[in-house]
TrEMBL record:
Belongs to the short-chain dehydrogenases/reductases (SDR) family. This is SDR family NAD(P)-dependent oxidoreductase. Keywords: Oxidoreductase. The lineage of its organism: Bacteria, Pseudomonadati, Pseudomonadota, Gammaproteobacteria, Cellvibrionales. InterPro entries: NAD(P)-bd_dom_sf (IPR036291), SDR_fam (IPR002347). GO terms for molecular function: oxidoreductase activity. One of its GO terms (cellular component) is membrane. It comes from the Bacteria.
Amino acid sequence: MGMSNSLEQLAGGVAVITGAGSGIGEGLARVAAEAGMRVVVADIALERAEQVAQSICEGGGEAHPLRVDVSSAGSIDALAAAVHERFGDVTLLIDNAGVETLGYSWELSAEQWDRTLNINIHGAIHGVRAFAPRMIACGKPAWIANTASIGGLGMMPIQTSYILSKHALISYSECLFLEMQLAGAPIAVSAILPGPVATRIFSDGSTTTDSGSEAHRSMMNAMLEADGISGYEAARRILPQIAAGEFWVSTHPEITRQMATGRAQHLSTLSKPALPEEVLQSMGLSVDS
Ligand SMILES: NC(=O)c1ccc[n+]([C@@H]2O[C@H](COP(=O)([O-])OP(=O)(O)OC[C@H]3O[C@@H](n4cnc5c(N)ncnc54)[C@H](O)[C@@H]3O)[C@@H](O)[C@H]2O)c1
């Protein structure tokens, strides 16, 4: 199935998108609705989810806001039960909610570590645990996608908790893909690796009290504002790839390829961790050779 008409397969289905009150998730909700899906706009920020759903409905689509805290297994279980009861079989689940946390690893509080890992990693794990059994049982072809990052292929100090969570999501998605095959379930699994998208992720990110983590946050925020595509544009690139059953889903294929090649080289030569020159420069680190 080609990319251009792949979205047609989604029409009439039910989509659940977490973190859909902003950014990439909001874009995915809009594009899924345009593809004829009934969309559950799930977010911890219910007011934002309501605004997104209302705007989709005003444009002629179908969307329903629901509150979920993906860091809580119980909250996701309640979402899955409510969605099944109100809207029937889910055919597209996108575990998209994620947060940024900045600071040296040893300076993040235990609460900051728990929050980051619970939202970014456990949010996807419990999303699948809560939704997949009913998706499999109904026997319909369906799609599950987890929003990782191009950062899941690389290294970035000061964003350690975030970066390791994205590595984990790629690993999780790979194993989940194989599990669906083994189980003979008609569920496609994708790992989404967005490049720069202009969203609220860094402005909302939590930091440590040292000035370095605040400076890093400002630098990353400025980079997204300058270079990032919109959440809607990201979703227009992402959703057709998911629908077509691609495992690796990219918004910036060139950057994804560079990062993947860099990772492969790093591992095949068992090199020490290092950052590319341009990254060091953007972090304001002197590069004496
Ligand atoms: N923006 C980028 O450049 C970029 C790049 C790569 C990956 N990503 C990933 O894309 C995903 C979406 O990020 P975004 O950039 O659109 O950010 P965003 O901050 O604009 O949107 C994230 C949404 O998730 C919600 N959220 C946060 N904690 C939650 C929780 N506990 N339960 C439910 N919802 C919660 C927020 O309220 C927000 O509406 C994240 O997983 C992020 O890591 C973003």
